[in-house]
Amino acid sequence: MTGFAVPAAWTERNIVREDGFVQLTDRLGKDPAFQARLAGIAVSNLEARLDLPAPAEKLGASLLKDAAQHMSSWPEYPQAWNETVRRSHRLNFAETAVPSADDSARSAHPASGDAATETSLVLDLGPFVRLLGDKLRAATGAQLAVPDTAVVGIGGPSQRQVVDRLAAYTPLWWPAGLGAVMTLALAVLAARRRSVVLVCTGLGLAVLAGVWQASAVLFSGLASAGLGESAMGALFARELIAASVAGFAPWVAATALTGGALFFAGVLGLILRRRRNAAVRAAG
Description:
The chain is mainly alpha-helical. The chain contains 11 helices and 2 strands; from the N terminus they run ααααααβαβαααα. It is elongated and about 105 Å long.
């Protein structure tokens, strides 16, 4: 039960919950390769819909070229990335996502790309496209019709099914966690040698921590496969998995330390028990 409860609790908190996912993916928005690809896709998306008047064409082209190279240095970039992550999370997790504390601060834009987003994983780059549109309006004075959404696929139906299963099953971590705690408590209360129970529990937790760590290393090695066939999906997968492994590491360490503490408490109890028995035999 512990083997399921701890990873599920971490996943529910950091992947399924919107606020946790935003915090987890913060490092993705700072990755230079990912920034460059985001900027390039946002610029291409706007260029395909752009119809500037002749006097503003040259200025607009220059701004878009600069955006493709330096948009990540703009002061508005972090907020655009944050909104992109929130929008994308809501699209990918649909109605299963847990509401965040920032609901009141979100813009009230409906999700789009309904048919595609129901069967695949996507990023909604609409905030970046809107940011580019605002810059163009300010620079050229032209009235531009900028799309509110710009959905980019990062994974197919099989990856979407994995996300749906995570959203469905990870909230069950708390019954498993409660069951693990109650089982340990009953075992300690019913055991003739409680110290042995503590020793075995400590060893079990240490083994679990080792299995989780090995699984994390193995999972990291599979990251190059990506979430889909696109380069964007592969890059997103690699960075997300790296962030997840780094984020789960403290939980692994805490489990190992808890196991070590229980093990040494059990060993200490066995030592004290033997000394008591020796003293009783000597007195008899």
